[in-house]
Amino acid sequence: MTVAAIQKTSVARNGVGAFILQCKRLDFHYCDWAGSSRGMNLFLQHNLSRFAASHPSIEIHVSPRPSKHPVIRGHFINGSQHSICVRNLEKEQVLKKAEILRDMSGEKAKRVKGGRVVGSLNESTRGIWSPFHGANGPSFEG
User: Fold this and answer.
1) Distance (Å, whole) CA 24 – CA 117
2) Has this prediction a pTM greater than 0.70?
């Protein structure tokens, strides 16, 4: 008796096999004149080249916005945009905000309300655990 192999292709999931950053573009808007852009200007002069070199999959746009506060805007592959105002922040803090946008998924923040806290694409093979499952049931003795 011969055994036939089952033909099945794997389902592509982000993080399995190859990871794709959800952020496709970062826009850095700054003002040359305003004092609130001091940290952004220092970031653009000293840290941006290293940040861009370490993330070649992210497109970087730098543009001046005279008389406006500095902003970092992230564009994501699902079509959404998120902006973070970085006025009066130091260059290290601007880098942290850029990393926050880099790591975002572009989805709106969802509130977890009761029920299943852990979401997964793969259901548990054993089901959801309950203290009432088992040979003896729950023990209420102290």
Assistant:
1) 29
2) no
